[in-house]
Design goal:
Mean pLDDT: 97
Number of helices: 16
Structural class: alpha/beta
Largest sheet: 8 strands, mixed
Helix content: 25-40%
Shape: globular
Number of strands: 22
Distance between the termini: 40 Å
Bound molecules: 3-acetylpyridine adenine dinucleotide
Low-confidence stretches: none
Strand content: 15-25%
Length: about 525
């Protein structure tokens, strides 16, 4: 056993067990060990830190949130001095950063890599979580923190006769550590979400022929890739805490202030100018939320945005038939997509767009895929088909709370949580960015939630208390979240945001839609009211 693999497991009794060492889990490990001085061990299936950034190393992978807010703030020195090279960091740079954080704080000695947790059961008699690893070992812990990721549970559907295919099938979210050489090859990309468009724009000029298998077209705006802006660095350096707090006090923590103006309240000329400015600046979230306040809630306002993008698309794509295939018919109300030069890719002679809704992928052959009755010959097929988002990884672990309550039963028709962090009947159990967390960018919000429950655990430690959640408080929280999504176009537009992307998954709200600033107000009021809604028994 190497040092990086962590302690021997079987029979160990911990204060805290953490599942997952992505952005949230690493910080939770830091807080539990360094702030509270608890005996903590973290577990991850990967052989290194990074969570989704460990696995998603496909060509073109990078954050599409500005690096200014895709960072930790707890280590002020690193917050100020880590030199992100680009406005949107590449996956390799994010992974380097996370390794640097883990190494600086010596976190890896408390992590068991290559370790899957299959089962977690609360034992009332000993007031401990009993975890079972994939290799049959047992670990006990007073607290369990699951930081298993919002978009980490891969979804890669299979098609008939896959075993006959003589080429290679690669899943974007489980990309091989050694990057395969795709130059000159006939490559298909199945899926045109954030992952698909990053791969498509990166590979179009590098492969022999690229076949894009598009089921539902999406609205795409430019990302605006470029060097990390000096003015952002200056602003962070001037007062990092003030910058962090400013970002947290916006609605979505993407590093800008959301608009409060209706798209319908300004003259058409001004509206066009605003959209044009946002288009030139780049960034999907900014285009959707910084331009106008009601794009995601009003069909009329939404149409002003889609009319603008449609005109750009039609100007960019030379073949009108291809432009028509690329034009969505639904609202601009999925998670917004951004990539530089996406539509222009389809002018290349080595790129073919397939409409696999009209002409479905039927099956594999030895040489490729049958699409709409015709064989497409391929060397490599890339599945960019997304994730069982938000709830997927929680439900993979067989989690049993008090009185034998199984999480899979409790969440059968949709998740139930309090503040996105706890679940009634699951004592001493915490989630980082669990269902019904705010609909925001992640790292700073992960930190905020971890800080919040670190304080709660500290309070419980003082009285040897067990933290649980009142069912009524949880019900109220779920209701607020369901009402919140119901008022938006995200609710009526199929995507992973509402669970519609996974066959058989309940279609429901999984978010607090009131914005981060309001979320902090609500959660701080709960804390200041003696943690109303939590029980520390
Ligand atoms: O997944 P998606 P993703 N046959 O669900 C298609 C984050 N992320 O991995 O729309 C054919 O968005 C599916 O088609 P349809 C980000 O939050 C961030 O791209 O269901 N096609 C769709 O086109 C993002 O939103 C970055 O009809 C099938 C695609 O696969 C989230 O992860 C980078 C199919 C899935 O799109 C998920 O993005 C990457 C089938 N059977 C990801 N099944 C950053 O930049 C599915 N599809 C930070």
């Amino acid at each position: 056993m190497t040092e990086a693999q962590g302690k021997r497991l079987d029979g160990i009794d911990l204060d805290v067990a953490i599942i997952g060492v992505g952005v949230g889990g690493l910080y939770a490990l830091y807080c539990m060990r360094e702030k509270l001085g608890l005996n903590v061990q973290a577990f991850d299936m990967a052989s290194g830190v990074g969570g989704t950034w460990f696995w998603n190393r496909y060509p073109g992978c990078r954050v599409d949130t500005e690096s200014t807010v895709y960072t930790y703030s707890f280590d002020l020195d690193m917050f100020q001095n880590w030199k992100w090279s680009e406005r949107y960091a590449r996956q390799s740079e994010v992974l380097d950063y996370m390794n640097a954080v883990a190494d600086k704080h010596d976190l890896k000695r408390s992590i068991n890599f290559n370790t899957r947790i299959d089962r977690a059961q609360w034992d009332d008699a000993t007031e401990r979580w009993v975890l079972a690893t994939g290799t049959g070992e047992t670990v006990r812990a007073r607290y369990l923190i699951e930081a298993v990721g919002l978009l980490s549970s891969s979804y890669a559907p299979t098609f008939p006769d896959q075993d006959k295919f003589k080429g290679q099938v690669l899943v974007a979210s489980k990309w091989p550590e050694t990057n395969p050489d795709l130059s000159g090859k006939r490559v298909a990309v199945i899926g045109t979400g954030s992952t698909g468009i990053q791969i498509i724009t990166e590979l179009a000029s590098k492969v022999g022929h690229l076949h894009v298998m598009q089921r539902t077209p999406q609205w795409v705006v430019p990302l605006g890739i470029g060097p990390f802006p000096q003015e952002a660095r200056d602003r962070i350096n001037l007062n990092p805490i003030a910058f962090r707090d400013w970002a947290l006090n916006t609605g979505t923590v993407f590093g800008f202030v959301e608009s409060t103006i209706s798209a319908l309240a300004v003259p058409a000329k001004e509206r066009q100018e605003r959209y044009e400015k946002a288009w030139q600046k780049g960034n999907g979230f900014s285009f959707m939320l910084e331009t106008f306040a009601d794009i995601t809630v009003s069909p009329e306002a939404n149409k002003t945005a889609t009319d603008f993008i449609k005109a750009k698309l039609e100007a960019a794509v030379k073949d009108p038939k291809v432009a028509a295939m690329l034009t969505p018919t639904d609202y601009y109300a999925r998670r917004p997509l951004a990539a530089d030069g996406y539509y222009e890719v389809y002018n290349r002679p080595n790129v073919t767009l397939h409409d696999v809704k009209a002409n479905p992928i039927e099956r594999y052959t030895e040489r490729g895929l049958i699409v709409g009755g015709e064989e497409v010959e391929l060397d490599v097929i890339i599945m960019a088909t997304g994730f069982d988002a938000v709830t997927g990884n929680y439900l993979k672990i067989d989690t049993i709370g008090k009185d034998g309550a199984n999480l899979r039963d409790i969440w059968a028709s949709g998740p139930r949580t309090f503040g996105g962090m706890t679940i009634a009947g699951f004592p001493n159990f915490f989630m980082v960015f669990g269902p019904f967390s705010p609909f925001t960018s992640q790292p700073l919000v992960h930190e905020w939630q971890v800080n919040y429950f670190t304080d709660l655990i500290e309070a419980a430690e003082k009285t040897n208390g067990i933290v649980d959640t009142e069912v009524t408080a949880q019900d109220q929280w779920v209701q607020i979240c369901q009402d919140g999504l119901a008022g938006t176009l995200f609710q009526v537009t199929d995507s992973w945001i509402n669970g519609a992307n996974i066959p058989g998954k309940p279609r429901t709200s999984m978010w607090y839609m009131g914005g981060m600033a309001n979320y902090m107000v609500e959660m701080n009021a709960i804390r200041d009211n003696n943690y109303r809604g939590f029980t520390v028994g």
